[in-house]
Amino acid sequence: EMLKRINATIANQKKNKTVARASEKYTYDYLIVGAGFAGSVLAERLASVGNKKILIIDKRNHIGGNAYDYYNEDGILVHKYGPHIFHTNSADVFNHLSKFTGWRNYQHKVLANVDGQLLPIPINLNTINKYYGLNLNGLEVEEFLASRAEKVYPVKTSEDVVVSKVGRELYEKFFRGYTRKQWDLDPSELDASVTARVPTRTNKDDRYFTDTFQAMPAHGYTKMFEKMLSHPNIKIMLNTDYEEVMNEVKFRKLIFTGPVDEFFNYKYGRLPYRSLRFKFETLETSQFQETGTINYPNDYGFTRITEFKHLTGQKHDKTTLVYEYPEATGDPYYPVPRPENELLYKKYAALANQLTNTYFVGRLATYRYYNMDQVVAQALSTFKKIMQSELSTKLH
Ligand code: FAD
Ligand code: UDP
């Protein structure tokens, strides 16, 4: 009898111990991999509206993903992963981000250095007049371009888009060299969507973007991300790769914002991503160039030089520039939009769709050449989808 009781007590203690251990192991509702726009927007929504417990991790030593900015050793605010200019036509996206930052109005302008001249890009009326030494008005320039444009049907590639609008000469001067440098592909090998990002205008509008909302976060992107993620339901873990914690933390659902092919261990082979090397330079002068960015389509190894103070409006007696050198290897920055890559991506997307309780969001995870606002929009719509599915599991 005594022995029985002792054994029962020991068994009970053991049981209690396991119970105690299990409750010590904190369970998250969501593990979010990547603290860029995709991950951070979802973390905040799920934590504050969904009242979910979130663990967000990033393998880098900072939040913000590719939009991360910081003050360099001279005290100038710079973007670590190249110039980021916020622009959107979506009031929803703009209003959402406005909960976490004020804004500084900023209309980005770009010049292209062609044959030693600085000409507005996107190509507009002034570009044509200056390049050809003409004095056309808006109507005349339309006729002028129509006479040079090549008939292409259907418009499929990044070459088609441009030659069908402005003809071969301007295509070669402004697009062909830049594109070959940036992608190591001829424009004829890239989807139309790539060069279609840069329109052709017959008016004098010399802004790079024409979106309704164009502004920079008043105190920088990183500050905006800090505010977004500062919620008691959100834990942040930096310097942490998904592989390191996937079996260590308990979570109910997963949101992955890294490269989708990496997630599936490159099962079908690697998705191509284009990378860049950034060279920063600080000069002992207050201004270096007349616009935020100058493109170099045909000369040098870099594609463009950006002077941050134009973007941020910062006053400083020094100035910092960034040169962008395209590279085949390095951090994955750009998906490469072309048919064969889309086919390969579709195979990964099919695998992704088979997984329950796992969501793929963002530029790398959905292999889309998305701007920041498009990623925010995608994250907000994923949030809605997630809340609906949480609701339907509760009801069943
Ligand atoms: P990311 O910002 O790439 O975030 C993904 C995060 O996941 C990264 O921080 C990464 O470290 C982390 N991660 C990946 N794998 C793992 C893993 N296994 N474990 C842990 N963490 C992981 N957009 C604009 O709207 N305007 C611009 O002017 C503009 N300029 C750009 C200039 C350049 C040079 C580049 C490269 C992009 C630019 N963009 C611009 C696009 C913008 O950067 C993206 O749309 C946006 O940052 C994508 O957010 P994301 O969350 O999808 O991805
Ligand atoms: N592009 C070009 N010449 C230019 C600017 C852009 O040929 O002066 C082409 C090039 O292929 C580039 C693409 O258009 O990769 C998109 O340009 P964008 O400025 O949108 O590139 P991002 O800022 O995303 O690097």
From TrEMBL:
Keyword field: FAD, Flavoprotein, Isomerase
GO terms, molecular function: flavin adenine dinucleotide binding; UDP-galactopyranose mutase activity
Cofactor(s) demanded: FAD
Domain UDP-galactopyranose mutase C-terminal: 173-369
Any single GO CC term annotated in Swiss-Prot or TrEMBL for this entry: cytosol
Keyword Flavoprotein: yes
Claim: Cytoplasm is one of the keywords in the record: no
Protein family: Belongs to the UDP-galactopyranose/dTDP-fucopyranose mutase family.
Protein's UniProt name: UDP-galactopyranose mutase
Source organism of the structure: Segetibacter aerophilus
Residue numbers of the full-length protein present here: 376 to 771 of 782
